[in-house]
């Protein structure tokens, strides 16, 4: 029995479909959720979310949020999520540069925590976009 | 009686006004459709997050009881001495009684709190909220404007942060959020809802279906990573943000539907006014013609004598 996966952002439902496996980046490291996984609530860090295996996998960039597993139901509450194909790489790169510039200044009026978080989000989006565009995405399942 | 020319001038200006109100109505209709979709689209997230909060809070109950609540935002004050009100209105007017009703509801709530011996402080969202509070005796902790028609969560979060900061600093012991709830195009109800402290869903509403728990072993079998405190620390502020966000979305949908109705009424009134002005104009014109004919014919009669 496959997992039913829902990815929900604050503004709208991103997707709702079945998958054999869900791979996500959590605060405690990358995890894979297979059917019959124990109930779980965990914190997601900026990174990727992968549904399914190999070539047919759906990849999303997630900018943090929560993942809940219950009875083969996976609910991802994302702060923001983008399906790999729809990521605007140039915007993500611009966001990365902006964040890096902020961090480089190290001034009192620059919010380091916020810039670091922005950098993490931008990197996650760039990585997901690159993983899908061209080279087969590396599969590292913890 | 007004001359035909004066009446014509008035008709022209009323026609112009009707054109504007008609255009505003049409704009409100399209914006309303989108705003409504956004309210609906944002509901699943809020619902699921509420479930999650309820679940984690229930799970952490045992740990929490020993040293007080598991998280400051869950702390129910023993006696409420200061009460906070987050008031959500629109930035723009021309939407009927909408903002007036919401502000009145908020002030009524504040009045009750005051009568109960509590200090009341406001957090204002929308220009109309600030204007409405200007002559009230209450303190305004923060004031947010320019939320826009299509806000992202990022617009809601400073509002929520202001409320959370005041709550954690014990500037307020509890907080409600007042906003126009979007019921239908014709109805927007001013609604007062508790915002802080967070009372997990189960405790608030016993009729809500309990999240499916597999019985006794579920309590121990639920994995929380990295740990309960970290999760609560992340999720609870987020939950407040989502509630504020929902309220703002509802307020926007309400604003457009109220404006739509108000502008439709204005357009109808303008049409009626034009009709009666047209009648007056016709009469005035006919009177002039009649008078001129009489003048001409009486002149001719005088000459033909």
Identify the CATH homologous superfamily of the largest domain in chain A. Answer: F0F1 ATP synthase delta/epsilon subunit, N-terminal
Q: What is the H/E order of chain A?
A: EEEEEEEEHH
Find the structural class of chain B using helix and strand composition: alpha/beta
What about the largest sheet of chain B?
A: 5 strands, mixed
Features:
heterodimer, A: 142 residues, alpha+beta, ATP Synthase, domain 1, Single alpha-helices involved in coiled-coils or other helix-helix interfaces, 2 domains, eight-stranded mixed sheet, 2 helices, 8 strands, B: 305 residues, alpha/beta, Pyruvate Kinase, Chain: A, domain 1, five-stranded mixed sheet, 8 helices, 62% helix, elongated
Describe this structure in words.
The complex is a heterodimer of chains A (142) and B (305). By secondary structure, chain A is α+β, with helices and mostly antiparallel strands. Chain A folds into 2 domains: 3-84, Sandwich (ATP Synthase, domain 1), CATH 2.60.15.10; 87-132, ATP synthase delta/epsilon subunit, C-terminal domain (Single alpha-helices involved in coiled-coils or other helix-helix interfaces). Chain A contains 2 helices and 8 strands; from the N terminus they run ββββββββαα. In chain A, strands 1, 2, 3, 4, 5, 6, 7 and 8 form an 8-stranded mixed β-sheet that branches. Chain A starts with a strand and ends in a 10-residue tail after the last helix. Chain B has a 5-stranded mixed β-sheet, sandwiched between helices. Chain B has one domain (24-204, 222-261): ATP synthase, F1 complex, gamma subunit (Pyruvate Kinase, Chain: A, domain 1), CATH 3.40.1380. In chain B, 34% of the residues are buried. The chains are: A alpha+beta (142), B alpha/beta (305). The interface between A and B is medium-sized, with 23 and 28 residues. Strand 5 (40-51) of chain A pairs parallel with strand 6 (223-225) of chain B, so a sheet runs across the interface.
């Amino acid at each position: 029995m496959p997992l039913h996966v829902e990815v929900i952002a604050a503004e709208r439902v991103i997707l709702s479909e079945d998958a054999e496996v869900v791979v996500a980046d959590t605060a405690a490291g990358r995890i894979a959720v297979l059917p019959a996984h124990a109930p779980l609530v965990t914190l997601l860090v900026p990174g990727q979310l992968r549904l399914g295996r190999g070539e047919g996998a759906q990849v999303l960039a997630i900018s943090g949020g929560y993942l809940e597993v219950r009875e083969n139901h996976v609910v991802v509450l994302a702060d923001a999520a983008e399906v790999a194909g729809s990521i605007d790489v140039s915007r993500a790169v611009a966001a990365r540069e902006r964040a890096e510039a902020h961090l480089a200044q190290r001034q009192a009026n620059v919010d380091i925590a916020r810039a670091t978080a922005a950098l993490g989000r931008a990197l996650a989006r760039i990585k997901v976009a690159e993983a899908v565009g061209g080279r087969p995405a590396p599969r590292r399942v913890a | 009686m007004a001359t035909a020319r004066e009446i014509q001038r008035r008709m022209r200006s009323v026609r112009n006004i009707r054109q504007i109100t008609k255009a505003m109505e049409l704009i409100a209709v399209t914006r309303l459709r989108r705003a409504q979709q956004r309210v609906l689209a944002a509901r699943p997230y809020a619902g699921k997050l509420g479930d999650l909060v309820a679940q984690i809070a229930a799970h952490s109950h045992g740990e929490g009881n020993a040293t007080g609540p598991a998280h400051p935002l869950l702390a129910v004050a023993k006696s409420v001495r200061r009460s906070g009100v987050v008031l959500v209105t629109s930035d723009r007017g021309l939407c009927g009684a909408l903002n007036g009703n919401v502000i009145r509801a908020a002030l009524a709530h504040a009045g009750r709190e005051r009568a109960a011996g509590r200090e009341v402080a406001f957090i204002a969202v929308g220009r109309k909220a600030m204007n409405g509070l200007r002559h009230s005796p209450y303190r305004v902790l923060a004031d947010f404007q320019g939320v826009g028609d299509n806000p992202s969560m990022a617009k809601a979060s400073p509002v929520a942060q202001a409320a959370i900061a005041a709550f954690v600093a014990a500037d307020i012991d509890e907080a409600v959020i007042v906003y126009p709830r979007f019921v239908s195009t014709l109805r927007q109800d001013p609604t007062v809802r508790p915002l802080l402290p967070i009372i997990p869903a189960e405790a608030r509403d016993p009729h809500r279906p309990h999240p499916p728990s597999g019985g006794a072993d579920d309590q121990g079998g639920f994995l929380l990573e990295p740990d309960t405190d970290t999760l609560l620390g992340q999720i609870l502020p987020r939950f407040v943000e989502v509630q504020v966000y929902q309220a703002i979305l509802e307020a926007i949908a309400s604003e457009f539907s109220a404006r739509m109705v108000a502008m439709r009424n204005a357009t109808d009134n303008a049409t009626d006014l034009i009709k009666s002005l047209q009648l007056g104009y016709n009469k005035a014109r006919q009177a002039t013609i009649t008078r001129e004919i009489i003048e001409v014919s009486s002149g001719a009669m005088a000459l033909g004598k």
